[in-house]
Design a protein that fits this description.
306 residues; alpha+beta; Nuclear Transport Factor 2, Chain: A; 4-stranded antiparallel β-sheet
Amino acid sequence: MESVKRMQLILLTAMALLTLGGSNQLCAQAVSRDAALSQSLQDVYLYWRKAMAAKSYNAWKQVTASHRRVSIQNRIFSEKGVFPTDIFKLPTAPPALTGLKLLRVRSKGATAKLVYFGKVDFGVGGKPTDNLLVLSFIYEGRGWKYDTAEFVNLENLKDVRAQLQAENLAYVDGVAFLPTGVKPPQPILVQRAKYITKVYSYCPGREVRVAVNSISKHRFQDTQQAEVVMGGARDGRNEIWYAIKDLPGYQGDDPITIRVYLFSQIPGVQPIKVYQYQTKKGEEPKAEGSDEFQVDVATGAKILGR
């Protein structure tokens, strides 16, 4: 009986060692995969950043996700800019990764994200503080392509900054920092706009979604902001659709505004408002609505300086 118990103990010990060895091997493989993925994604970003600095359209096109290329071309055409020259007209230089700490690398399906923490430097002077930089990528063809960079300013989230400095990474494990696994849809390619058009929203505590002519789609959240309408407004009849909802926790009764403006490139010609939906304080906004606005001959002539 004693020998049987001894044999059982030996077998259990061997099984435990095998399980531990297998677990360690799996962990090592996961770490190796993450390291390879992070290096691959970082190389893509650095190549994209170099292309931007060199103003090389061919290099930029090679490494930028296709839906992002179309979106940028649409924006430039809608602003009546010069393509591809205006691709490289950025308000600040893309930040270097030197000195930043990689906190997370994740992939899901054809999407991936790198999350960095540290003194993100856009080269505009001053002393950078510790903030987050999130880089997003799309897998297309035979490799990863750069999509977007998001700068997360922690100036008003000092507790989060302190947590990250103390290596508490719970904040960057939230949904906002996870790849979706869904490739963004390919935008409709627009023609060069006749009129530079912007949609504006003032929406404290609300989310406002707007679509103009079923092509240009916008989302505003708790902000006062304007965005360029892809393709611009058309001569004659234009369609607009909007949806409004309260953000979680909002209990106010602030007014809300949606407007569409035409902008002129002629010095001294002021923007012309061609559409407005607005509520008064205390007035409940519509949850959803469809409407239209007109760009008549006189308005068009004034904007174009004719």
